[in-house]
Fold these 2 entries.
Entry 1:
Amino acid sequence: MTSHDDLRTIDGDVFVSPRHLASTTGIGDPALAPLIDLGWDLHHDDLGNAYVNAPDRKIRLGYLPEGEDDGLWRINAYRDPFGPPTWGVCFNDRVPTEFVQAFTTVLATAYQQGPDTYLARPVSGTDEHDPFLAVVPLLKQGWEIDRPRWGVFAIQAPDGLAGLEFTTGDLDPDAELTTRDARWQLWAGNSIDRPVWYATASTDTPVDLLTAVTQCVADPAPLPRWREETFSYIKGMAQLTPILPPGPPAPTPLDVQRAVASRRPATLPAASVPRWSTTSRPALPGPRR
């Protein structure tokens, strides 16, 4: 149950569910923060695009609102900073910001652990790097495995409005980095051919990074959004639930005591009673009989 204190900090007036039918918040700072907090270099170009680079330049992130296509987030990792990328991930301009933040948060941790972690290739049949581990969070939430076409495994959301596809066989490394023809593609909308948002990841993207995103997508908790910001959810598909404003806080014992005291009547004057006074004359005793 969400507490009153939690409701006061929620940035939105509606909850969007399921969360894969949310969209971008339009603010990139939360997803940039995990890397900037490590001291990575941040600079902007004249158009307003932002670039974040690891100190050794072996991981580079581009936040490209003024890019040439709808690939808003492009993240690449390198064994040699002067060579081609070892892996690449792209999130388009409608992906929920929380999903990108989940990725960059785990990426920051992986970078601190070294290249054996952030460059770890997926390997089928291993305990830690099996690609299948990335789909487990979705399967646990009722997503179903499908084979939509030859050479493709798909995991479909229960409502049919999101999916994750894994393509088998040999792929063009350059195409994986620059198009949607990548090993992994996560999407939401009417179909993978007409997605509202999508994310792609190339063949050698570490499983831990992929799993960070699928865990965030699979989380059953709704995401907060502002109803008037219709770009922040998939209109006509997402379920919107009003976030009720918090009621007054429960009174403390001191509050109750004060309330009772305020309702007491004013003190009445004491009833008039005869009192002995030094000025009073004592009654004379009567004659004895």
Entry 2:
Amino acid sequence: MSEIKGKVVVITGTSSGIGEATAKLLASRGAHVVMGARRVERLETLASLIEAEGGSAIYQQLDVTHIDQMQGIVRLAQRRFGHVDVIVNNAGVMPLSPLEALKIDEWNRMIDVNIRGVLHGIAAALPLMKEQQSGHIVNVASIGAYAVTPTAAVYCATKYAVRAITEGLRQEVGSDIRVTLISPGVTESELAESISDDEARELMQTYRRDALPASAIARAIAYAIEQPADVDVNELVVRPAAQLT
């Protein structure tokens, strides 16, 4: 019997990339997926695809920078299914640039989505999980949470923050709630499309030549979720075999 079957899983950033792949995989294994993203038309298409293949999926438009919207999608999951087993805080942005380019609006966007969005996911799900005395919070970071590279100082800072928040949460919540950090290496996604700086965009095109499919990260998330309740997978770093640093 799959440990995923029947679980209610809220996933942010589900309109593409890792979020989309995770929703498809978990639904195929019997989870009820509750999907959130800003591009609601993509969510509608994805939900229809999952349901056509026999899966269970609902969705709601979501901007993770707004706490009321994050609380709203958790309430949707609870109303529809009675509880929430897992939240995957996946939404993120990556508009890289050298600091001297002073792209302050882009810095603020990364802080808002990558850090505040994760905190909002925790704030929305944790009270319910404490009341249930069960739950699993999965935060998606990056290998940028372990080392800083040129043009990525602010992005890496946000991912270092996610790593610190996740570890602090794990130590605080006790044994009833599991906490997992997933840190992908270079992975196929739309993140690089948000890079407006020419130098950073050129560097990223070279860097992404050996990218993992998003399904590889989805499998890592599924691995953490499918463990028995007394097993907490704290941290997974998943890189392409060709990516040495």
